[in-house]
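[09:14] KT: can someone run the structure on this one? pasting the chain below
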Amino acid sequence: MSTSIKALLMWLVIGSTVAVQAEDRESAKGWYNYLKGEWNSEIDDGSEIVKSTVVWRNAAKGNASIGRAQQGDTVGIEIGGWQPDTKTAQVNGYNSKGDFWQLEYKKISANGGEGPIRGSYEGEAYTGNFVGKVIDKNHWEWTIMGKNSQGQEFSLNCKLTRKGE
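[09:31] RB: done, C-alpha cells below
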C-alpha cells in the first residue's frame, strides 16, 4: 500500500472518530437543551408520590447541565456533563437529606438516555439501571430498576411535566 493511501486512510479514520465524538456530544447537548427550564416532578416509590420542582439550566457552552430541586424543606443540586474520553455523560447529585446519586449515561440523545446509577435514597444505598425518555415537548419520565444494600429489588418511577403545562 502506498504511503499516500495509508495517510488518506489514517485521516479518514481520525475524521470519522472526531465526527462520532461530535455527534455524541451534540446528543448530550440536545438532552441538556430539552431539560432546560422549570419542571414539576412526581416520584413514585411504590408507597407514596413525592412531588417537587426542578429547574435545569445549561452551563459550559451547552456541554453541561445544572439542576436544582425543591421538595418541601429538602433542596438538591445536580451537575451533569459530557465526557469525550468515555463518550458518556456523567451526572452527580446531592440533596439536603444526605442522599446522592451518580448516573453514567451509556446511551444519550435528545430523546433521553440510559445507564448505570448508584446512590442513596432516604438513607438506603442502591445500585441500578436508569432509563429516561421523552414523551413529548413538555413531558418526560424516568425509571430506576435496582437493588438496595440488602439485595432487595426496587423500582422508582418519575413523571415530569414542564411548568406552565
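[09:33] KT: thanks! Residues 3-35 form the longest helix (33 residues).
[09:34] RB: yep, looked fine to me
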